[in-house]
Write a structure and sequence with these properties.
By secondary structure, this protein is an all-beta fold. Helices cover 0% and strands 55% of the residues.
Length: 124
């Protein structure tokens, strides 16, 4: 199993995507809009925050940000995410092997501001 960071230094790996949700009457399909900050996401080592710009377009949108934290002892760590300075809602946290060896945290924001704005993830 590949480790993403040393025990004493937290690291973040982030992925974001925007999904366009159609109004209920026309909800035959969910459309994928974009992934960012690139097809492989972004990462930071020896740091506790990561930021990139993401463009949201369309109506009835849902912004989803997934953050993976690799740390051999994640006890007491907390993660927050914002888009355009607006706090995103925590949707789920899954720990690696149901232990404290890192976790994946999923955030979302309903109807985020359109245009290009900063996505920020901060580990504390």
């Amino acid at each position: 199993m590949k480790k993403r960071l040393k025990v004493s230094v937290p690291a973040l790996v982030l992925f974001a995507l925007t999904v366009v949700i159609l109004p209920r009457a026309a909800q035959a399909a969910t459309l994928f809009d974009a992934v960012g900050p690139g097809s492989k996401g972004a990462s930071v080592v020896n740091g506790t925050s990561l930021s990139w710009n993401h463009t949201v377009s369309g109506a009835s949108t849902l912004l989803i940000v997934s953050v993976a934290v690799g740390n051999n002892n994640d006890t007491g760590l907390s993660l927050t995410a914002t888009y355009n300075g607006v706090p995103m809602t925590s949707a789920a946290i899954v720990h690696s092997d149901n232990k404290n060896n890192g976790f994946e945290h999923l955030f979302y924001l309903v109807s985020p501001a359109g245009g290009t704005h900063a996505v920020n993830a901060t580990l504390a």
